[in-house]
Write a structure and sequence with these properties.
- With 196 residues, the chain is mainly alpha-helical.
- It has helices at 2-19, 25-38, 41-51, 56-69, 75-84, 88-101, 107-115, 127-139, 144-152, 159-172, and strands at residues 180-183, 192-195.
- It contains 10 helices and 2 strands, in the order H-H-H-H-H-H-H-H-H-H-E-E.
- A two-stranded antiparallel sheet has the order 1-2.
- Helix 8 (127-139) runs parallel beside helix 10 (159-172).
Length: 196
């Protein structure tokens, strides 16, 4: 029985590899859903290969699927894609997936997107969307350094980056309750004391 299951699984992966390239978006989405359910090293490897491939549509869809699976082993290759990519749709996808994975190793590369203007000189358009997505991705990483970076961007020129930074700032500095005002019975002159 195990031999049959192993053979079917191998055949299934071959079929999935072919189905991911199908022109029909419904067929492709069904293949991605099946890969999400499989969620094993072979599925992740297949998605990474497609993410690094020459078909931009398939690359973006594969990166989105990786973000849903959150495989920590994919971080290095996604970071490599992030650093070597020119298409803003792929950069946005990489930022989203890295944020969903939430690995602190992603903090510095995402920070570079937000702080270095030269990094995006190769982009003709889409820079603002990539920066906003990088900011949101940082907000998904539970690490003090990610919060520090975002708080430092509280006055960024991009309103979407500012919004993310301000949300992080509010969540890291909750409002202190106002002091309670009480009438203390020992006060003869009716003075009011505050209690912390």
């Amino acid at each position: 029985i195990l031999d049959v299951i192993e053979g079917v699984t191998r055949d299934l992966k071959v079929e999935l590899a072919q189905t991911l390239g199908d022109e029909n978006p419904k067929v492709r989405q069904a293949a991605f859903r099946l890969l999400e359910r499989l969620n094993d090293t072979q599925a992740v490897e297949l998605l990474l290969e497609r993410a690094e491939g020459n078909d931009p549509r398939l690359a973006v869809e594969s990166i989105e699927c990786l973000g849903k699976l959150k495989p920590s082993g994919a971080v290095g290759r996604l970071l490599s894609l992030l650093q070597n990519q020119k298409k803003s749709a792929l950069l946005v996808g990489c930022c989203r997936a890295l944020g969903q994975i939430g690995d602190p190793a992603c903090i510095e590369p995402l920070t570079k997107i937000l702080t270095q203007k030269g990094l995006f000189s190769r982009l003709k358009s889409g820079r603002a969307e990539v920066r906003a997505t990088a900011a949101y991705a940082l907000s998904q990483i539970s690490h003090p350094r990610a919060a520090e970076v975002l708080i430092s961007l509280e006055n960024d020129s991009d309103p979407r980056v500012r919004e993310v930074a301000q949300k992080v700032l509010k969540s890291s500095h909750p409002k202190k309750p106002a002091p309670r005002i009480i009438n203390h019975p020992s006060q003869r002159d009716g003075a009011i004391k505050t209690q912390k």
